[in-house]
TrEMBL record:
InterPro entries: SET_dom, SET_dom_sf, SETD9. SUPFAM superfamilies: SET domain. CDD domains: SET_SETD9. This is SET domain containing 9. Residues 115-290 form the SET domain.
Length: 294
């Protein structure tokens, strides 16, 4: 009996890393476990709002990190001019005093000043669930973008077998696209290598800092959100977002996703986490691992 219970506990902790089990259950349970009604294909947050939110946060991060970007920005005059406009808009009276804006703030503080909350990783409130993600400051209203799911983006036929072994961070989109959000081992090396491959002169086309303990994009912690349970209902949900081609090149350095290969022209797939209800400071985020809105 004790042995059986032990085995069951180990399986419950392991099954989310077992890709065939995940694939089977996503397909089988999509109908019953989705938080959006079957009749509705609408996203909880429209794409335009997701884009607007990302642009707002990324611009604030760029403005805050001004010194580091001056050499790169001066190489592309058009981008430099756009950046100068963004910066002066951000420094206008009413957008915070210019003196306080000159000080380099932590990314979490920039997020708090921009969206009214910040999120961080910490020990989960669930026993033996490892790390989780918490609203560390402020308040997140229902229907807001609260985090991003970082990682390498694989299309169906692309080789992910070795990266997937014992990997609990593989996220499956409804159309079969996979996102590997593991910040360790082979997954980490693949992400870094793709990121170097895509670098455009001084411009990074993606953010590699989510692989560290101090991500420069503070939203890029969604891979650490734990699964809901009877006691802890889901308060966030996954939503797919394709990055439009016109996304500003100077802001791509904050995107925590990269495509594994460039075989065909396609949009970069991101997955964002959006809130299902108001979430207060100190609360942990919980998702349903089978809930995706495409
Ligand atoms: C994507 S990871 C989430 C981050 C993880 N907590 C960590 O510290 O790395 C998924 C893994 O977290 C653990 N986990 C997630 N939700 C859980 C829950 N409700 N109860 C127990 N463990 C959970 C399982 O080990 C699962 O394989």
């Amino acid at each position: 009996m004790v042995v059986l219970r032990g085995l069951r506990r180990r399986w419950n902790a392991y099954k989310y890393r077992f890709v065939p089990w995940l694939a089977f259950n996503v397909r089988r349970q999509r109908r019953t476990l989705r938080y959006v009604p079957e009749s509705s294909q609408d996203k909880i947050v429209p794409d335009e709002i997701v884009l607007e939110t990302l642009l707002k946060v990324f611009t604030a991060l760029l403005v805050n990190d001004f010194g580091r970007h001056v050499p790169a920005l001066s190489l592309l005059p058009a981008v430099g001019r756009r950046y100068a406009q963004l910066r002066s808009a951000a420094l206008q009276p009413g957008a915070g005093s210019s003196r306080s804006r000159q000080v380099l703030l932590s990314p979490e503080e920039v997020l708090f000043r921009t969206l009214g909350f910040s999120v961080t990783r910490d020990r989960s409130s669930l026993l033996s669930a490892g790390t989780g993600v918490f609203v560390s400051k402020g308040f997140v209203p229902k229907g807001a973008l609260v985090a991003m799911y970082p990682g390498t983006v694989y299309r169906k036929h692309e080789p992910i077998f070795f990266q997937s072994l014992g990997n609990p961070f593989i996220f499956r989109c409804i159309d079969g696209i996979l996102i590997d959000g593991n910040d360790k081992g082979l997954s980490r090396s693949v992400y870094r290598s793709c990121s170097w491959r895509d670098q455009l002169g001084p411009f990074q086309m993606s953010d590699v800092s989510w692989l560290t303990a101090a991500p420069q994009n503070p939203l890029a912690v969604g891979q650490y959100v734990n699964n809901c349970s009877y006691e802890k209902a889901a308060n966030v949900c996954y939503q797919e977002f394709d990055v439009p081609r016109h996304f500003p090149v100077e802001l791509k350095q904050y995107l925590p996703n990269i495509v594994y290969s460039h075989e065909i022209e396609s949009h970069l797939r991101c997955v964002v986490l959006v809130t299902l209800r108001d979430i207060k400071q100190g609360e942990e985020l919980f998702s349903n691992y089978y809930t995706i809105v495409n």
